[in-house]
């Protein structure tokens, strides 16, 4: 009996084939690319907001240190809105554009809605304080962070980019 089964398998007559789940064809961005884009966005988007809030709105370092909670709210609210508007228009921030990556809705594969992007960017700032949310990308094959999992979005390489 054992030899007959081996021959059937060898001759491809064995009928029970394993069904493999379809693999995703999305080119997920690597963690190193996402970090480089984050650093680029930090200098291009965050630094001007920091400068305006600290020196023009809060009146300098002393005014900022007196009202830190209000100062950080003045920094993060415009930053979240600016990032959301950039992603809503082109699904890229300046850092994402520099490294040819974009944010997509995992279900549709297209640009996410305004409220989904707003939720994603708000939870990105909140998960930055827990650190765990950002460290997840080093342990996952698709390099998703906590805010990507919560909002069901993904950062992928842009396919139809001009070179």
UniProtKB/TrEMBL annotation:
Keywords: Cell membrane, Membrane, Transmembrane, Transmembrane helix
Spans through the membrane: 38-57, 69-88, 114-139
Domain annotation RDD: ranges: 29-152
Cell location: Cell membrane
Bias (Basic and acidic residues): 1-11
Alphabetical list of Pfam families matching this protein: RDD (PF06271)
GO cellular component, one term: plasma membrane
UniProt cross-references to InterPro entries, sorted A to Z: Pra-immunoreactive (IPR051791), RDD (IPR010432)
Residue span of region Disordered: 1-28
Name under which the protein is recorded: RDD family protein
């Amino acid at each position: 009996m054992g030899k007959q089964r081996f021959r059937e398998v060898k001759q491809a007559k064995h009928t029970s084939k394993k069904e493999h789940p379809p693999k995703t064809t999305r080119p997920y961005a690597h963690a190193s690319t996402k970090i480089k884009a984050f650093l680029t966005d930090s200098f291009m988007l965050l630094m001007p907001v920091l400068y305006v809030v600290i020196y023009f709105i809060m009146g300098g370092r002393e005014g900022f240190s007196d009202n830190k909670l209000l100062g950080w709210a003045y920094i993060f609210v415009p930053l979240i809105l600016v990032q959301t508007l950039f992603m809503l228009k082109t699904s890229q921030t300046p850092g994402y554009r520099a490294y040819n990556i974009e944010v997509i809705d995992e279900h549709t594969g297209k640009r996410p809605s305004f409220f989904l992007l707003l939720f994603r960017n708000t939870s990105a700032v909140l998960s930055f304080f827990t650190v765990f949310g950002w460290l997840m990308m080093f342990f996952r094959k698709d390099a998703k962070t906590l805010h990507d999992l919560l909002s069901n979005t993904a950062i992928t390489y842009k396919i139809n980019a001009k070179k």
